[in-house]
TrEMBL record:
Protein name: Glutathione S-transferase-like protein
Keyword field: Transferase
GST N-terminal domain ranges (all copies): 1-81
Gene3D superfamilies for the chain: 1.20.1050.10, Glutaredoxin
Keyword Transferase in annotation: yes
Transferase is among the record's keywords: yes
UniProt superkingdom: Bacteria
Molecular-function GO terms, alphabetical: transferase activity
Gene Ontology annotations for the cellular component aspect, listed alphabetically: cytoplasm
PANTHER family (UniProt xref): GLUTATHIONE S-TRANSFERASE OMEGA, PTHR43968
Species whose genome carries this gene: Alkalilimnicola ehrlichii (strain ATCC BAA-1101 / DSM 17681 / MLHE-1)
């Protein structure tokens, strides 16, 4: 039995949970809920970086970094490929843009939590906010494939979770007002069972 260390607010952990559900691995993974910010000893015992998500494999190795964990789940799970051969480089482009969006949003939230609103005015804070706006525009320009019932890819998962994380933690970005086609795509993705079952609190 694999073990996934996670918390409910981590967008990275949510990507892994959605990937696990899409790959048909729900019963192969025990969820270990923990708080990475309080140096939970159970998490430290498996991941020295004290970060979630972390997956302990059936072989007893700990995988950290959400995309590496998904790489493993994609190889061992029976469900459809999350990075299919057809359209592979486009899927990876979406994955990278989605991960960059998630990172800029997450770092904005953490910087505000530790340094207050002034964090947004710093050089790095301004860079993060510009990266969010540019990435949203690039995703909207590029267009996301309409999700069919069986066609979810890693790119679609990561982009949709990043957009959802913005609605959850940075609603003032209000990306859905500026990018209505992206909002329609996001609505459809959010109705997948894997998304409904892993909603942010
Ligand atoms: N690049 C990592 C990011 C993981 C990450 O930042 N996790 C956060 C929660 S969303 C965490 O555990 N932070 C605790 C800490 O940094 O001490 C991934 O893709 O998995």
């Amino acid at each position: 039995m694999m073990e996934l260390y996670l918390n409910a607010t981590s967008p990275y952990a949510r990507v892994v949970r959605i990937a696990a559900l899409e790959k048909g691995l729900e019963t192969a993974i025990t969820l270990q809920w923990c708080d990475p910010w309080s140096d939970d000893p159970r998490l430290l015992a498996v991941n020295p970086a004290a970060r979630v998500p972390a997956l302990v494999t059936d072989e007893g190795h700990t995988l950290s970094e959400s995309l590496l964990i998904v790489h493993h789940l994609d190889a061992v799970g029976p469900g459809p490929d999350l990075v299919p051969q057809a359209g592979r480089s486009e899927t990876l482009q979406q994955t990278g843009w989605g991960q960059g969006l998630m990172e800029a949003a997450f770092q904005t939230v953490i910087a505000r939590k530790h340094q207050g609103a002034a964090a947004d005015e710093s050089v790095l804070g301004q860079r993060r906010l510009r990266a969010i706006d540019r990435t949203l525009a690039a995703l909207a320009d590029h267009g996301m494939d309409q999700p069919g019932t069986n066609t979810v890819t890693l790119g679609g998962i990561v982009v949709a979770v990043a957009l959802d994380y913005l609605l959850f933690r940075l609603p003032e970005v209000a990306w859905q007002d500026r990018h209505p086609a992206l909002a329609r795509w996001h609505d459809e993705m959010s109705n997948r069972s894997s998304f409904l079952r892993t909603r942010f609190p």
